[in-house]
Specification:
The complex is a heterodimer of chains A (107) and B (118). With 107 residues, chain A is mainly beta. Helices cover 0% and strands 48% of the residues of chain A. In chain A, strands 2, 4, 5, 6, 9, 10 and 11 form a 7-stranded mixed beta sheet that branches. In chain A, strands 1-3-8-7 form a 4-stranded antiparallel beta sheet, with no helix packed on it. Chain A is globular and about 35 Å long. Chain A starts with a strand and ends with a strand. In chain B, strands 2, 4, 5, 6, 9, 10 and 11 form a 7-stranded mixed beta sheet that branches. By secondary structure, chain B is mainly beta. The relative contact order of chain B is 0.32. The chains are: A mainly beta (107), B mainly beta (118). Chains A and B meet through strand 5, strand 9 and strand 10 of A and strand 5, strand 9 and strand 10 of B.
Chain lengths: 107, 118
């Protein structure tokens, strides 16, 4: 199976910060990469698909980039409502896999 | 409005089976794959498998073959997942979620908590 590694399991940020979350696949996933946001008690919410395509209704402060094995989720000017856990997920191989998640906390 | 409404929490004994339902509304049920995802207490996410509601064809994560069985009832736009021979390792929240072919999972159910305990 393709392994998805999010280098940071958590980090503390300040409101208004620019935040970058990274995700590395164990092999090329050809941009078949999604980012999800999950808040406690809720299901994951799809933010970005195809590595860079923002889903309808997702604020433009969210963006995705990357190719090959390396991908990034960026949040410009972090808002209170962005405090959550973020997961990357590949849908290139026949067995889909998730990263371990990156939890954002306010300093 | 797209909705995936899952059945309620389950408390089951070790060795038993459980069947979770996911009723879809607001879209063409046969036009999207239905996936099932496990979220363990430590919050890790695992893809269990998918079913094509149009054909009934399935694809499973090797880890869950023999443990999970995915089915659908097209007449009621409902997807099901049965888990058998349950152990404490299966205590988790299970989500149904849909996707178009070769696309990410865009709508999710609210999750069903399964607790395996004697």
């Amino acid at each position: 199976d393709i392994q998805m590694t999010q280098s940071s399991s958590s980090f503390s940020v300040s409101l208004g910060d620019r935040v970058t979350i990274t995700c590395k696949a164990s092999e090329d996933i050809y941009n078949r990469l999604a980012w999800y946001q999950q808040k406690p008690g809720n299901a994951p919410r799809l933010l970005i698909s195809g590595a860079t395509s923002l889903e309808t209704g997702v604020p433009s402060r969210f963006s995705g980039s990357g190719s090959g094995k390396d991908y990034t989720l960026s949040i410009t000017s972090l808002q209170t409502e962005d405090v959550a856990t973020y997961y990357c997920q590949q849908y290139w191989s026949t067995t889909w896999t998730f990263g371990g998640g990156t939890k954002l906390e306010i300093k | 409005e797209v909705q995936l409404q899952q059945s309620g929490p389950e408390l089951v004994k070790p060795g038993a089976s459980v069947k979770i339902s996911c009723k879809a509304s607001g879209y063409s049920f046969t036009g999207y794959y239905m996936h099932w995802v496990k979220q363990s207490p430590e919050n890790s996410l695992e893809w269990i498998g998918e079913i094509n509601p149009s054909t009934g064809g399935t694809s499973y994560n090797q880890k869950f073959k023999g443990k999970a069985t995915l089915t659908v009832d097209k007449s009621s736009s409902t997807a099901y997942m049965q888990l058998k021979s349950l152990t404490s390792e299966e205590s988790a929240v299970y989500y149904c979620t849909r996707s178009r072919n070769y696309y990410a999972m865009d709508y999710w159910g609210q999750g069903t908590s399964v607790t395996v305990s004697s």
